[in-house]
What does this fold into?
Amino acid sequence: MTKEEEILLKQGKMLPVMEHFYTLQGEGAYTGNAAYFIRLGGCDVGCHWCDVKESWNPDLHPLMNAEEVAETAAKHCKTIVLTGGEPLMYNLEVLTKKLKELGCEIHIETSGAYEMSGILDWITLSPKKTKLPTEEIYAKAHELKMIVYNNSDFKFAEEQASKVSANCELYLQSEWSKRNEMYPKITDFILANPKWKASVQTHKYLNIP
It folds into this structure.
């Protein structure tokens, strides 16, 4: 990366874009809705079960002009999902400002481990034990999505749920490879604790991105 590119990256004018595509939202509160995804490369949270580990190294993904990416996205759809990797590793001001100028609603999927930036209309917080969220994001999260890999994750989910606002929607989602084992347990847990809802990775069943 050149010195000039480093400056543009810090300013948020350029971002490492792993991929961007138009599809259906597969998880959580907006499941089934058309959305344009912008996946940024780079993440150091290090979930061993991550299904996009190729996103971890930002150097593998080209720096792209944030405003041009916004313009491409807005031509397809007005619901934009920023994901990763970990999108909050970057300055999202330029990208989100342009998206708002183009009439978009901006969603983000984040571990919450980094300081917030940009204009965000819907925040899906998915905390990870390896790098916990910053305190500021709990009150702002609209949706808490907890990934269930083993039995101890139910306790972690409840701990995290105690920190978000009363209006935050609560979801439990099995890690994909453990779905046959964990969804029966998730079902029982939700029946006993009906403040929670089940989230399923429907995009994997539909065979879409």
Remarks:
- The chain has seven helices and nine strands.
- The helical segments are 3-11, 66-76, 93-101, 135-138, 152-161, 179-192, 202-206.
- The mean pLDDT is 96.
- Strands lie at 14-24, 34-40, 63-65, 79-83, 105-110, 122-125, 143-148, 169-174, 196-199.
